[in-house]
Predict the 3D structure of the following.
Amino acid sequence: MNMVMNRFEQFSFKKVLVALIMTALVFAVIAPFSAKAAAADGTYAVNYNVLKDQTNETSRLDSYLTKPAQVIVANGKNVVRLTVKSSNLITTFKVEQNGVLQDATVVSTDTANNTRVVEFQVADLNAKVNAYAEITIPVIGYTGKYDVQLQFDEI
């Protein structure tokens, strides 16, 4: 009986050891593929969506921004540039920076085409970015205030 028990314990120990080694090997092989490396320095065209706050529904503001966005990666930092259409109607455009909504920096303005380019830094392009905009249409006395989120595709 002892011989049977020892053989059973030995067999179980070997089986468990082999299973652990195989599991470790599988994770060692898969782990490098699941970790996303930071994008190399450069300028990228990245598609994005403007979503209603805390949803996956497209916001009305989405139609006021051109696509794709220009993402400039330098020294591990991501700077996003968006072109705002109907610039005269978008009176405010803010993006969350360190937990606070701040005006996006205006890079250029094209009054002939009624557009402007704004830029802001984004720490993680894989996370939704909180933003806020106001659309004012004086002719009809409308002011819309939009809490939105920007969701970028992968570089």
In short: The chain is about 20% helix and 45% strand. The helical segments are 2-34. The CA atoms of residues 95 and 136 lie 18 Å apart. Residues 1-35 form one domain.
